[in-house]
Request: fold
Amino acid sequence: MHVFVTGGSGQTGPTVVAELIAAGHTVTGLARSDASAARLRALGAAVHRGSLDDLESLRRGAADADGVLHMGYGGDFARPDEMARRDTNAIDTFGRALEGSDKPLIVTSGTLVMPLNRESDETDEPLADGIAGFRVAGERSCLAFAERGVRAVVVRLAPTVHGPDDHGFVPMLIATARETGVSAYVGDGANRWPAVHRADAAVLFRLAVEKSPAGSVLHGVAENGVVFRTIAETIGRGLGLPTVSLTPGTAATHFANPYLGMLYGVDAPVSSARTQALLGWAPSREGLLDDLDQGDYISSTTR
Reply:
């Protein structure tokens, strides 16, 4: 299968591109810059120059492929409505290009769209007014094409997709610990965060491209909810720093911005049991705490 991929040169994207190519698929990746194009070529992918704002370029990329895997996302997080509008425009463009073809359109979202304070699963409705509500419009746009002859699928990734050279929420937590001299959690730290290793996530994306039914919602989660206090304690042990509890008010100023202070305190456990049963997906890589102990998180001088 020839797959048109956006976000293929980002953090998770290269592992997904490599997984697709290793399985015998051909990949063309969207590249906005020379650096992105070089990274895609090094992985063995062809390059399609353009950006998520260039809808005609996106249309051509989709029309020339046997399916689309949309992982690209970005913009100014201080303007979530603008990000959502950009994402939805791209998804609508892909869907119209694939309409009536039964080709796959795989769109990425995040499990933080789900209800908090209980373990949710793939059948629960996402919250448009939740902490990641700006991703919901894109989900809905994608799934609407399932009724229009497109094998439309949403993959919700855990907020922590860990692995080598991670640049997400956990490295930000580590950076704050280095800067402040304490590894912190919010309240009693009993809140839970789902996680998945990047290599396991890549296998899920490949399976979604190959065989996920139209209208599916998949959860890219290997660990349903790692207790946040244990994350902070593992970081503290690795850095040789004390672990401390913060009030929500203190957390808003302790971390890089108030959003992170709020985010690190949410309880957001998620199940992927239905996804695993549907596709035969069996995450097998090390968990987040083992990765913190054994990976490059603590040893890296850039964290």
Observations:
- Residues 2-160+196-223 form a domain with the Rossmann fold fold (CATH 3.40.50.720).
- The first helix runs from residue 13 to 22.
- The chain has two domains: 2-160+196-223, 165-192+225-268+285-294.
